[in-house]
Amino acid sequence: xPQGLQPGQKLARGVARHxxxxxxxxxxxxxxxxGLRVDVIALGPKGDIWIVECKSSRVDFQTDSKWQxxxxxxxxxxWAVDLEFxxxxxxxxxxxxxxxxxxxxLIRMPGEDKLAPARRKKLVHxxxxxxxxxxxxxxxxxxxxxxxxxSDTIEVTQTQS
Amino acid sequence: xPQGLQPGQKLARGVARHxxxxxxxxxxxxxxxxGLRVDVIALGPKGDIWIVECKSSRVDFQTDSKWQxxxxxxxxxxWAVDLEFxxxxxxxxxxxxxxxxxxxxLIRMPGEDKLAPARRKKLVHxxxxxxxxxxxxxxxxxxxxxxxxxSDTIEVTQTQS
Lengths: 161, 161
Description:
The structure is a homodimer of 161-residue chains. By secondary structure, chain A is of the alpha/beta class.
């Protein structure tokens, strides 16, 4: 079991693995606009955008007052929950994924509500920028900004100072 | 000094740092189409795309028979070289960046040759997908495919088998 992940993050891990198998590239904790943060955003081979919200418990779902705001930022919207979750709580028009930390399965495909082209373009651009920046931060962390993950970098920092 | 990097990769590291400071997100070793691999691709805040080829020596430049093929995949094209490089060899209409492993400086801004919208869209989509997949491979490597980078994952693999 991956250490230090919250229950929702474990679901997100399984979801991301399944999405990868479906040919979708994913980012976790993506911010489509200020004040909104989605658990998983997935970009498909044809530019289609899915959002998956991971709910680890009934309370986690019932205290989420923001999810309807996510519908405007994707072509399809899904919930990801574990096997224990009372799925009858979830709106029937939304997608359903059953997940654990290791994998997931798409149970119910929701209808598609296509993004306007300008918004899709903006989202794909932000997805690209965020993904590349996160990758860059891991590859070459800025001391004091990204944290230091790689021993190489510690050495570089020492050499420079 | 980062260990194990080739001279060209050290230049790419400095270039990526400078691009980040300019607000561009970068990916290294990006493949715009089969048979072409660019050293650094940079995506700007307005969707503009730059390509930077890193040349560590005169020979490295003179044996590159592919660079003109890169012009079709960006709005602006640059060379990145170190201070020792004989820059008079480089075509004057191309961009020039002086770099080392730690930073870079943009010396000559080339003219812009704008990508067609369909090609830009395709490139940004591939940039997004590649960046997210690389990030995912680091975050959650698939044993035997991505290699194993994180001790968490070793544990997961052992638990699953």
